[in-house]
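Quick one: structure tokens for this chain, please?
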Amino acid sequence: MKLLVYGAGVCGSLFAARLHEAGLDVSLLARGERLASLRRHGVQLAEEDSPAVRRVSVPVVEHPDGGYGLTAVLVRTHQVDAVLESLAGLEGDALFLHNWAAGAEPLGAAIGRERVLLGFPPLGGTMDGDVIRYRATNFMTSRVPMPIGEPDGGTTPRLERIVREFRTAGIKAKAEPRMDAWLRTHAAFTMPLGQAVHAAGGPVALADHPEAVRGMLHLMRQNLAALPTPPVPRAFAALQTLPEGLLVAVLRRFLCSTTAVHSGLSDVSPATAAELGRLAEQMRAHAKFRLAMGGSGCSAASQPSAQPGSPAGPSAPLCVGDD
């Protein structure tokens, strides 16, 4: 199967490098300065703070030439609309691997419902110039699969084929029958986390403010309670049931870990703020739709407002429908 990875940032570059090293026929789409760097040096990788940099000569393209059996999209949430315009002119299936809380409908409306698959990449790292510093594999990260699913939750030959091909390449892919619920659960957790880290100036800085972490936890709980289905995976239900003090301690410890520092949480760039903003819009729209249908429409999908350490935490809750 001929593969195209659309997006040459941290996750896209890591993903393309792993597929290429496993012998798959993969190309990486890039433009501008990133394209020039990849053509000169390949994908440059270093484990966390290691001085050792290795280069992976992944084929790079500026304009896809077609013939791809699968295009894997790894971009930020707010960049998806522009990508859809390009994908509409291509053939083959499209696997969207990024933060997304709007469901498959807007994706299918743009490129065709029959082409869409949803997923999420268990990859993390930061850009250091042109070098990608990826987080080291540990016991926790090694157990995290890459969920991939059909929008309707079905098991199809193409899903089985993609999972099998990725697993052959050493990627722990897993067919997920509740992929949409998985992505909404992830957004319910990730958005308060990202907003709080962004407001604090980084994960370690946030860990130094237990009240801000406590406020972040409150928003996570509020978002999870507003979901139309139980959390997926079920482990996220622990955020609603375990004692608050214990969870604050666990979250603070996580924020200081190398896993958090090297996962991309340290990126407090304007692009991160734009992605969080778009994700918040998607969650608000979904909550507003549920409110109109008679369900609960209260979520914590808001932009960062309060300063770390303030009683309100990293951001203020928003109940959709309140003006």
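Residues 35 and 119 are 25 Å apart (CA to CA).
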